[in-house]
């Protein structure tokens, strides 16, 4: 048999022996069933997180890194594991550790820092420094009470700047120091200064606006001294509560076998930490009212709400969620600024009704009701967000890269 172009077919040799073998036997590869999925589903995850697994000191660090990148217990089920922790244990066992000789030189560990900076006594002094500076500023203002207004203004401004510097120094070390390298919003400091400044001078300013003032430049601002001193001293219990939360959060991470179990451990811990700080802050406010004189119960409530708001915002920022912290502070500042703006806008012809809500609230509970409502609403929002954000493994493990909220919804 030949092909149309005159060539012999390949089947001719097979037909020469009486047609015993007319068809070729099927190949063995054709009988092999098609593969529906990878035999080793974890291999792709190993390659994707190679550096994380190679440099991890234990499986918990891998679990925190996976959770920070969005891997949940449901995702782990697709890799044939019951939870993220089980998946992290397999990755830790399979990926070889990186050679310390080939790893780049890392930043010195906190334990290698100078003993003076790392000691608890020095950190305690730094955390008590804002309160001491604030008391000194109040004493300096009292000593120049008979001086010209320009001198008193200069002394007050200098004392305020020193308090801000002391607070900044206190939060840059110890439990309130941010562990993540992300810069976070640059406006967060502005919202802190606004809310703290309103707590000290906001009630006086709102009274003046409602009365048709202030008569600038002759008006002498009246500061809420007790509130300022109590908030300045509140940095020390805030650091203690933040340390307590961090230590027990890491213990909960080590003892948990899944993200659901970790969340069940962290939620009551966060609530207990917040209540513990609130109790310490109320004690400071009542003590400051006894020494310096206060403006009533509503002023204490407003200051306590602001203190809890600042504490929750710093706690979220410390554990990798600076964006959420800045949003909570900005919302409180916006509500306070809106109240002042409505009073001013109500002076325009035809718009007096815009100031009625603020006037009614002030008449019913005093000017301190405005920051009390604003800070309480913002603090509750941050607490609800913290009950979700701080229950992840990434919030309780030091992250070498950016904020944890960059990887979490």
Count the beta strands. 0
> Which spans of ≥5 residues are poorly predicted at pLDDT below 50?
6-22, 28-37, 100-117, 405-409
Radius of gyration: 32 Å
Give the N-to-C terminal Cα separation: 72 Å
Query: Beta-sheet strand percentage?
Result: under 5%
Mean pLDDT: 79
> What structural class do helix, strand and pairing data support?
mainly alpha
Largest sheet: none
Measured as a percent range, the helix fraction is: 55-70%
Discrete helix count? 17
Order of helices and strands: HHHHHHHHHHHHHHHHH
Judging from the principal axes of the Cα atoms, what is the shape? elongated
Structure description:
With about 400 residues, the protein is mainly alpha-helical. The protein has helices at about 10-15, 40-50, 50-55, 60-70, 75-80, 85-95, 115-120, 120-145, 150-170, 190-210, 225-235, 235-255, 260-290, 295-320, 320-345, 355-365, 370-390. It contains 17 helices and no strands. α8 runs antiparallel to α9 (about 150-170), α10 packs parallel to α15 and α13 packs antiparallel against α14 (about 295-320). The model is unreliable at about 5-20, about 30-35, about 100-115 and about 405-409 (pLDDT under 50).
Question: Which labels suit this protein?
Answer:
single chain; 409 residues; mainly alpha; elongated
Q: Summary?
A:
With 409 residues, the chain is mostly helical.
SSE layout and pairings?
Layout: H1 12-15, H2 42-48, H3 50-55, H4 59-68, H5 73-78, H6 84-94, H7 115-118, H8 120-143, H9 149-171, H10 188-210, H11 225-233, H12 235-255, H13 259-292, H14 297-318, H15 322-345, H16 356-365, H17 369-389
Helix pairs in contact: 4-6, 8-9, 8-11, 10-14, 10-15, 11-13, 12-13, 13-14, 13-17, 14-15, 14-17, 15-17
């Amino acid at each position: 048999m030949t092909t149309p172009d005159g060539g012999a077919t390949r089947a001719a040799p097979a037909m020469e022996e009486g047609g015993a073998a007319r068809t070729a036997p099927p190949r063995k590869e054709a009988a092999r069933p098609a593969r529906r999925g990878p035999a080793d589903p974890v291999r792709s995850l190993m390659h994707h997180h190679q550096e994380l697994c190679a440099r991890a000191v234990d499986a918990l660090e891998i679990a925190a890194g996976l959770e920070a990148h969005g891997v949940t217990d449901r995702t782990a089920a697709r890799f044939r594991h019951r939870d993220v922790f089980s998946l992290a244990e397999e990755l830790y066992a399979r990926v070889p550790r990186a050679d310390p000789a080939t790893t780049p030189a890392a930043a010195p560990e906190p334990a290698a820092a100078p003993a003076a900076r790392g000691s608890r006594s020095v950190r305690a002094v730094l955390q008590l420094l804002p309160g001491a500076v604030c008391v000194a500023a109040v004493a300096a203002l009292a000593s120049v009470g008979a001086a010209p207004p320009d001198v008193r203004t200069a002394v007050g401004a200098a004392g305020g700047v020193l308090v801000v510097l002391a607070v900044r120094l206190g939060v840059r070390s110890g439990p309130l120091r941010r562990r993540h390298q992300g810069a976070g919003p640059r406006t967060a400091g502005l919202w802190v200064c606004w809310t703290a400044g309103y707590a000290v001078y906001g009630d006086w300013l709102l009274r003046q606006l409602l009365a048709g003032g202030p008569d600038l430049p002759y008006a002498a601002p009246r500061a809420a001294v007790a509130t300022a001193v109590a908030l300045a001293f509140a940095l020390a219990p805030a650091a203690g509560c933040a340390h307590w939360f961090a230590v027990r959060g890491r213990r909960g991470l080590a003892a948990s076998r899944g993200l659901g179990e970790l969340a069940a451990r962290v939620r009551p811990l966060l609530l207990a930490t917040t209540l513990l700080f609130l109790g310490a802050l109320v004690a400071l406010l009542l003590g400051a009212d006894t020494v310096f004189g206060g403006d009533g119960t509503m002023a204490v409530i407003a200051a306590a709400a602001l203190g809890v708001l600042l504490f929750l915002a710093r706690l979220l920022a410390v554990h990798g969620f600076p964006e959420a912290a800045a949003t909570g502070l900005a919302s409180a500042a916006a509500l306070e600024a809106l109240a002042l703006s409505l009073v001013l806008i109500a002076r325009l012809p035809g718009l007096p009704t815009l100031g009625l809500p603020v006037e009614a609230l002030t008449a019913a509970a005093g000017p301190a009701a405005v920051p009390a409502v604003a800070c309480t609403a913002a603090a509750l929002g941050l607490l609800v967000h913290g009950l979700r954000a701080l229950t992840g493994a990434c919030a309780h493990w030091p992250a070498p890269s950016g904020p944890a909220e960059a990887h979490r919804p």
